[in-house]
Structures are given as C-alpha cells and as structure tokens.
Amino acid sequence: MSLLKKNIFFNTLSSFWSAGMSLIFIPIYIHFMGVEAYGLIGVFLTTQVMFSLLDMGISTTLNREMARLSAYPDKAQEMQDLLRTLEFIYWGIAFLVMIAVFVCAPLISYKWVHGEQLSPAVINQAVMIMGSAIAFQLLTGFYSGGLLGLQEQVLLSGVNIFISTLRGAGVIIILWLVSPTIQAFFIWQLFTNFLQALLLFLLLWHRIPANNSSPTFRISVLKRIWHFAAGISGITVTGLILSQIDKVILSKMLPLELFGYYVLASTVAMSIYRVTGPVFSALYPRFTQLAALNDQDRLTLLYHQAAQLISVLILPICMIVFFFSKEILFLWKQNPATVEHTYKLLRILIIGTGLNGLMYVPYALLLAYGWTKLGFYQNLISIIILVPLIFYLTSLYGVTGAAFVGVILNSFYVLVGIHLIHHRFLIGEQWLWYTQDIGRPLIASIGIALIGKLFLNVSLPRLQIFIYLFILFSASVFMSIVASSQLKVIIFRNLKLINFNATFTKSK
Fold it and tell me: 11: closest CA among 298, 309, 345?
C-alpha cells in the first residue's frame, strides 16, 4: 500500500504540474500570437489525439507485459525482445504519422480551417511542423507505458515535470525574444517532444535487466499479445473518438476564433483529468490483483474508498468552477472579451467532464475483470448518437449546443452504465456508490459553493477574490471529506487527527 500511495502522489504531482504549466502559459500564448493562433493549437492537440488511435493498444500492452515479466528474475531476455519487437512497430507507426500529416497539410490549411489573421501559407507551414511533433509525442507515450509497467512512476514523473516546464517556459522565451509566431511555437514543441522521447527511450532500456544476448524482433511475441492489445485498442479508439469528435466537427463548422474560445473552455474543463488519471493509473493494478484473487471483501472496500477519493478530488473543483467560472477566467485571463465568450461554455463543459471523471473507478473495476465488451459497445453506440447530435445542436444553438452534448453523454454513463457494471461485478454496490461515494460529497460541495456565491462581492480587488475563492475551495474539499463515510477515516488517521480503528491497510 505504501507503493500505491507513493505512485498516486507522484502521478498527481506530475499531472498537476503539467496542468499548472498549461494554465499559466496559455494566456501568454494568446497575448503573443492571438486567439486565432490558439485555435490552431487546438487543431494540433486534436490531431495529436486522433493519431494516437494508431497506438492500437500497443503502449498499454507494453505496460501490462513489462509488469508481468518483471515479477520473474529470469525474464530479462523476454523483456528485451518484447521491447525491441514493439519498438520496431511503433517507430514505423510514428514515421507513417509524420508522412500522413505532411501529405494532408495543404488540405488542412486551405480547405479545413478558416483563418482571417493567419494566411493559408502560414497555417500550412505550422501543420507540417506539427507532423514531426506528433510523431515524437506518440513515441513518448510508448516508452512511458514501459516505465509504468516497471513501476518507475517516480522516475517518469520527474521527466514529465522537467519537460513540461521546459516546454512552457521555453516557448515563452522564444515568442518573446525570437519570433512571436505560430511557426516558432510549433518548432519548440517539436524540440521538446523529441527530447522527451529520447530521455524515456534511454531510461527504459537502462531499467530493463541486463542480459548477455542482444534484443531480437520476434513474431512469436506478437502472436502472444495480439488478443489483449486488440481488446484495449477497441476501447481506446472509440474513447478517443468520443473525446475529440466535437473538436473535429466544430473546427469545420465554426470560425477559427470562435473555435478557439471553445478549445480554451475545454482545456480548463479537461484539467479534471489531471486528477483522475493519476489515481486510475495507481489503483488499476491493485484492482486487478484483488479481482484475480477473488477477494470480494477487500475489493469492495477499496472500490468505495477510491470512489470517495475521486469525488473529493473533483466535485469541489467542478462546483467552484461552475458557480464562479466568470471570476476564475478573469483572474486567469484578465481579458473581458475572452472571458465573456468563454465562461458560459466552461460552466457546461465542467459538468460533462466531472460526470465522466466519476466513472473512472467503475471503469477500473470493469478492466480489472477483463470485461472489455461493455466499454467498447457503450462507446460505439455513443459515437453513433453523438455525431448527428453535435451537428443538430450546433446548428440550432451554436457552440453552446455542442457543449451540452458532453453533459448528455456522460449523464447516460452515470445513470445507466453504472448499473450495467454492477449487474455483473460487486452486485448491488451501485446504490452505495450513488449515495455515499458520490451523493454526500456532492451535497457538501454544492452547499459550500452556493453559500460562497451569496456572499461574493465582485467589486473586490483581484487578489482578494483569489483569496476568497481559495478559502471557499478549501472549505469545500474539507466538507466533502467530512461527508464521505470511509475516506475521512483514512485521511484523519494519517494526519493523526483522530485515532480511528479503521485504516487504509484494510484494503491490502
């Protein structure tokens, strides 16, 4: 359990640091390059995610296989052959991605995005640089999967913190002292992505146990792992489509400036995943162990503790952002026009991402038992419904209508998907999930946010508003912990505030 706590801590630290770098530097990017250029950055991020579909579950498979083989002292050769085999395939995928972006650059620049301040020629140059940056980002994900499998999450977090700082601070210097252009921005992204991939490549090969024989590409490795990779790939592909299809469609339907506001609001809302992702990465292996041992009692206990942890982490954020989106954006961006175009979108998007974040623990339970069909078919049906719904609501209500699609989709997951999961695993536990794990922290978070909204004086100086919101958020987190039935026992005992008999070690 100490390893679990350490991994959660460092995963969260790395994730928050990267999110902080992004949130701090985005207003500066817009200041130097303009909101239209930031809209092009949104196209870059969406394109990067869409090309990650070509991962085909390989990085997740590398994660799993490295974890399995590292448990045996005589598997060094198999680990090296596994990495060399998958590495050969992944480098080929990265090269094809780079070529594909080069070929599609004119189509994207002249036919897809619509710029007024940025000429098609400038956009074309930026897109071509994107291709190489995306290729190295894919390789970063691959080598990260291997380090995660070796339980080197502290080391991986250190690299990610270093690179995210270099990427954010470095590009500001480039834009300020060298060239305030979108081309300069993407050249720096290319450099930092290359450096990150190189560092992770060296560290992963260094951490694999030494062996006398050289690593070899083996077809037998592919035959052994393809079934698992295919199952994960199906969920990953459909999940990524769901998370990015709105941006793909809106980049075509909306002017680039309006699309930039949507991307800005979406970036803030999706910061929640910086909290849920690290917890999922640390908890999922433990869920898998308990499921394999068929230890229902300890799995049930850890499941509810984890669900309450997720609730305490994200519900206060969601409620504070929902009720104070305008004030938060103004503190962050300090541009009245940008705030006015963004704050209502943020209110809607934060609810959708919050609902999605609550499903991370049930999803970990689903994968722990290896039941991938529900996730795949659920995503597939959602895509079929989602695409026409985005077109329809956007045509009627503009960008606001598109934002509501995420709320509709994730409400379905919470109201229906949770029952499908608990119809098969931990039967009947969904009612405790609704009432204790989610309901109590939610009521506490809403209550604190409403009280804070009533007493907020918007005419206060910015520093005082920041302090007020920080105190309000802290109170919301504290009351959410108090409202949780099991998490407060763990936290207060670890802080030595109360001498509880129950401890987190019960879930071991």
Answer: 309
The span from the CA of 480 to the CA of 443, in Å, is 8
pTM metric for this prediction: 0.67
- Residue located via tokens 């609001």: 265
Distance CA 503, CA 488 (A): 10
Alpha helices by DSSP H, 254-372: 256-269, 273-293, 296-323, 325-333, 336-358, 360-368
Q: How far apart are alpha carbons 117 and 34 in whole angstroms?
A: 9
Residues whose CB is less than 8 angstroms from the CB of residue 154 and which lie 6 or more positions away in sequence, other chains included: 6, 7, 10
For residue 375 the two structure tokens come to 């996730």
**What is the Cα–Cα distance from 353 to 359, expressed in whole angstroms?**
10
- The 8-class DSSP code of residue 215 comes to P
Are 399 and 345 in contact by the 8 Å Cβ rule? The answer is yes
Helices and strands, counts by H and E, the chain: 21, 0
Q: How far apart are CA 218 and CA 296, in angstroms?
A: 39
Domain ranges of the chain: 1-217, 235-508
- For residue 99, how many other CB atoms are within 10 A of its CB? 12
Cα–Cα distance, 12 to 386 (Å, whole number): 31
Rounded-to-integer distance, Cα 200 and Cα 159, Å: 8
Euclidean distance between CA atoms 355 and 11, whole angstroms: 22
pLDDT in tens, 441-486: 999 989 988 888 888 777 777 788 888 888 888 888 888 888 887 7
User: Which residue, among 36, 389, 48, has the nearest Cα to 246 in the 3D structure?
Assistant: 389
pLDDT recorded at residue 502: 45
Rounded-to-integer distance, Cα 374 and Cα 456, Å: 45
Q: State how far the Cα of 259 lies from the Cα of 271, in Å rounded to an integer.
A: 18
- Residues shown for the chain: 508
176: which DSSP letter? I
Is the CB of residue 355 less than 8 Å from the CB of residue 314?
Answer: no
CA 409-410-414 angle, to 5 degrees, is 125
Tens digit of each residue's pLDDT (9 = 90 or more) over 310-323: 888 899 989 988 88
Cα 450 from Cα 106, distance rounded (Å)? 50
- Spell out where 171-326 has E strands: none
Residue 287 has pLDDT above 70, yes or no: yes
Q: Give the closest residue to 448 by CA, choosing from 312, 283, 278.
A: 312
**DSSP helix/strand/coil, 151:** coil
Q: CA nearest 402: which of 251, 272, 256? A: 251
